[in-house]
Amino acid sequence: MSLTGLLFMLSYGVGLLSAFFKHPRFGLYTYLAVFYLHPPIRWWGSSLPDLRWSLVAAVVTLVALLASKLPPSPTSFTSHRLTKIIILYVLWMWVQLAWGNPQHFEGVLLMTKYVVLLYVIYRLVNDRQSLVAFSYAHVIGCFYFGMLALNASGAGRLEMLGGPGVKDSNTLGMHISTGLFFAGSLLLSQRGWRRWAVAAMVPALANCLVQTESRGAFLGVACGGMVYFLFAPRTYHKLIISLVALSLFVLAAYAPTSYWERMGT
Question: N or C of the chain: less Cβ packing under 10 Å?
């Protein structure tokens, strides 16, 4: 077993134990780490046991959450309109099993897992401090993908680089685009070295997004940016416009011709 693999195993075990003996939130962070690192496709993961790393982390986190004595949330998980829409959609997917293609079950199972994951995040990311920590974890994970993308420069569109569910260039691009919005929120809300740390990671995220050459991700960032601007506090509007203008200038100056040709279609 390589040193990297050994460190991963130790960190994984400590994270899951901490979910029970400290706070279930450590289990969520372990789940995020496994999602981004995804041992089965990394060079250091070949010597590790053949284990459903993400599933084990998710189950342990859920059990730790249910066994903990966390105070109830101010509002229930199902009281939000978006949550109700997602649950109704998943229930409708289950109904469609009666006449759908057998492969439809894979999508049903995946969306059901997402509902459980949404519940876990809703219960554990429930204050400003935990939201900031969760945001940093997401941005750091996307930065890791961005560093892998740098090593893949010149290899065409990015395939088989991300973790489960984001292995192709389109889904990876869409995932990285959410990381950019999280990074933008941290740039606006954080101060000192925390803000500068995020600023240092943003170029890697943006480069990874460009390397995916995903038209869906491009449209997602464009539409999401407009919604982001409309819902942001007015005090940040000038700063957001400045950051967008800077981003567009860098994109126009450094994005390869192949990127613009694909976006033009």
Answer: C
